[in-house]
Structures are given as C-alpha cells and as structure tokens.
Amino acid sequence: MVALESVLKATESAKIDRVWCLGDTVGYGPNPNECVAKVAEIADVCLVGNHDWAALDKLDISDFNPEARLAIEWTQSQLTDASRDFLNSLEGRLDNVHPDFTLAHASPRHPIWEYLLYPTTAMENFEFFETRFCLVGHTHKPIIFQQFNDQPEALPLAFPQPATEVPLPIAHADGVRLILNPGSVGQPRDNNPRAAYAIYDDEAGTFTFHRALYLIGETQRRMADAGLPDRLIERLAYGW
User: Fold this and answer.
1) Which of 58, 112, 148, 227 is least crowded, fewest Cβ atoms below 10 Å from its Cβ?
2) What's the fold here for domain 2-235?
3) Cβ(105)–Cβ(50) under 8 Å?
4) First CA to last CA across the chain, in angstroms?
5) Residue 124 CA from chain centroid, whole number
C-alpha cells in the first residue's frame, strides 16, 4: 500500500486518463484489503494474477516457495468479502481495452502463470495476440521483447532504466511488435527497490518506464507486525 500510494503521488501532475493494473493486487504485502479498495477505486481496468487466484483458493499453492505460501495463507485469512468479490470479478487477459494493446497478467498464451523472461518463450507468445503491443506483469521485472516483421526471433531490448522512453509509432512503422512489462509496484525484482510503473502517452505515442521512491521501512514494519516471513521483508530493500 505504501508503494502504491507513492506511485499515485508521483503521477499527480501527469495527465492520466486511464489506469491499467496488470494483476497481483494482493499476495505479498501487509495491506491486502486496502490495496484492493484503492485499485478498485482508481483502475479503469484490472487483471487477476496468480497470487490473486491463490488468495482466492483458485490455485494450488504447493508450487509456491515456502515464504510465498505463508504470505498467501496469511492473505487468505485477511481478505474481506468485498475484496474477494472484486478479485473474483477479474480476468487474466483482456483484448478489448485499446486497439493497439492486449493485456495479460503473465503471458498472452497462459495469462495466469507463464514467465516471460527469455526471448525463446517470448517469441512463442507473439502468435497468441494480434495487436501491435502486449502488456504483461508477473515477473516483477521491467523488460521489452521485440518481434521484427514476424521474424522467428524475439529480442529483449535490455532491462529499461527509469525514464526510458519507447517510441511506439516508430516501432509500428518499422514492422515491430512488442511485449512490454512495466515492472512491479510493490515487489520489484530487478535489483532496484523503487516502485516500478509505466505511462503510455497516446498522443506522443510513447511508453515511458518510471520508478518511485517509497518508505520501504514502513512497509517492512507493517509486514513484521503481521508476522510475514523475514525473507520477504528483507528482500524489499534490495529489489529482488
């Protein structure tokens, strides 16, 4: 919740018309109901993620690592009926939110649980959406994958740094399709502990990656008070 509030604060001066949430609203943090309520309030579109499904007992958590499993079990004990109703209303993939974008939590092929970390896996996913661009989350890492003129190779365009601006119309003119991951607000895993988000400017045709500082210590304190695993608490300071 602290990270989410910091992102909202950081974007106050930006002209944000629509908010898209790519899923995993709950699962690790100490304020699941507050996060659900805020996302339900501000998001025009919200997807369901694997941790959301797990918190709803729709996913077998035996495949989760021990710390993640404990966090899910705690989250399950905390969710209100209102939070459950909201999360139950969500889908893992949406194709009709924008003419140029497909949205999926994990991947367009497997919307709930497939990690797009490597070019080979990304390449296989381009055939599962028809729009120019696909937004995904799930990995907690900002990244861009590129397909050029339907060539059988997807290239990662490195891990974008804050303020990296991607000119999407140029990509279209050059026959490029992209899979873009803006990173994670509350649990970044790219060795940068700041909250990650991105802004799409449909007039300029740019997709810009951003980071926001937040009070990590406050989140850690709340997690400790809730009895969440030490490893999950400590990793926030390192962004992994």
Assistant:
1) 227
2) Purple Acid Phosphatase; chain A, domain 2 (3.60.21)
3) yes
4) 18
5) 20
